[in-house]
Amino acid sequence: MTILLTGGAGYIGSHVLFACLAAGHEVVVLDDFSNSSPAAVSRVRELAGGVVTLYRGDVRDGKLLADIFAGHAITAAMHFAGKKAVNESVADPLDYYGVNVGGGMSLMRAMAAAGVFRLVFSSTASVYGERVEMPLTETSPLGEPANPYGRSKMMVERVLTDLCRADPRWSVGVLRYFNPAGAHPSGRIGEDPLGPPSNLIPYAAQVAVGRRPQLLVFGNDYPTPDGTGVRDYIHVMDLAQGHLAALGYLKERTGHHVWNLGTGRGYSVLEVIRGIERVTGQPLPWAVAPRRAGDIAQYWADPSLAGKDLGWRATRGLDDILADHLRWQQQNREGYAG
Ligand code: UFG
After folding, report:
1. Which residue is closest in CA terms to ligand 1's atom 4?
2. Which of 56, 101, 152, 191 is the most exposed place for a label (fewest CB within 10 A)?
């Protein structure tokens, strides 16, 4: 089938693009390259072969979307286009709501007009807010996301719920990502953040290759086993397979469906540091710094619903995530620009 990937040149989008092509689907990518590179698409083409049509543009451009749907026999869309820097979202909420909520709604409108009702949406575990009981299941009540980024994802989730109630033709899969990291094992595609990374594994990988002097550990006084934050890191290749599995499920059903994509296992910041040292055989320079505003002590997924419904589970562990992330960073010290 032909699948539209908005944001298909970005970190997660490019890995899903790989998975779609490897599975024999045709893909149309729409990306504005504001935080991604056309090189990601050409590298995926080299890795997977297959048919990709690339459009440069903004997902809020309704005319462009209408032209794309008119020009291709698209049967489903996966929506990755959006902004994801937590700090930026606090500083510029209008931009975040405009792009993330406005972009999501623009896509939904264009899909409905084109008669395409199958959509997979990238959401985040941030929608659960700060909860005490672990693990997080899809039936855990939604909390208060700590920032406009998380709130923008929650708002799109709500719009999708209402849309499915209003029109039974919709078939929507909301995927709540835990902490994606890692890269395609070739080292050809990976995460290439603009400026200093804000996420742990990308930052630590840049320290490991000598691009940054040291990692700051944001707080060692959390109520966790070693005092540092605990997260459920999921390999981006596993995450990509989860998208294909969701698409397969939606082919047979309509309605609104939600799945956690995580491993079910949390690791602390210090465990990640030790993992990197294990993989590289080198000490990783780090120091303790104060807690980062808005951070939560710990969370991890109960991924069993995705197992039951989709037959999906993460197959790669922390060392695979770190080895693959580091390979990408070593082979592309300066990212796609390097
Ligand atoms: N951390 C450090 N040092 C760093 C970066 C992170 O110690 O330089 C710690 C954090 O305090 C946290 C853990 O590493 O305990 C993970 O932090 P990340 O920034 O990698 O990820 P978060 O769990 O904070 O999640 C953030 C956003 C989510 C978003 C996710 C993926 O809060 O909304 O990144 O982009 F979904």
Report:
1. 200
2. 56
Tokens coding 168: 């039974």
Q: Which residues contact 180 (CB under 8 A, 6 or more apart)?
A: 11, 12, 233, 234, 235, 236, 239
- Pick the atom of ligand 1 nearest to 126's CA: 33
E strands, 33-99, in order: 52-56, 74-79
Which tens digit of pLDDT belongs to each residue from 102-112?
A: 999 999 999 99
Q: CB–CB of 260/232 below 8 Å?
A: no
How many angstroms separate the most distant Cα atoms in the chain? 56
Catalytic residue chosen out of the listed positions 149, 177, 203, 222: 149
CATH code of the domain made up of 2-181+234-263: 3.40.50.720
| 123 Cβ below 6 A of ligand 1 | no
Q: Is 269 in the pocket of ligand 1 (CB under 6 A)?
A: yes
Q: Which of 156, 200, 288 to mutate to test the pocket of ligand 1 (most atoms within 8 A of CB)?
A: 200
What lies within 8 Å, CB to CB, of 93 at 6+ separation is 148
Q: Annotated catalytic, 149?
A: yes
For ligand 1, say whether the CB of 224 is within 6 Å of any of its atoms: no
For ligand 1, pick from 155, 178, 269 the residue to mutate: most ligand atoms within 8 Å of CB.
269
Integer Cα distance of 96 and 306 in angstroms: 29
Element (DSSP H or E) covering residue 121: strand 118-124
* Domain boundary assignment for the chain: 2-181+234-263
325 Cβ inside 6 Å of ligand 1: no
Place of tokens 């790989």: 18
- pTM for this prediction: 0.98
The answer to whether residues 173 and 257 touch, using CB atoms and an 8 Å cutoff, is yes
In this structure, what token pair is assigned to residue 79?
A: 């929506």
Q: What single-letter amino acid sits at 119?
A: L
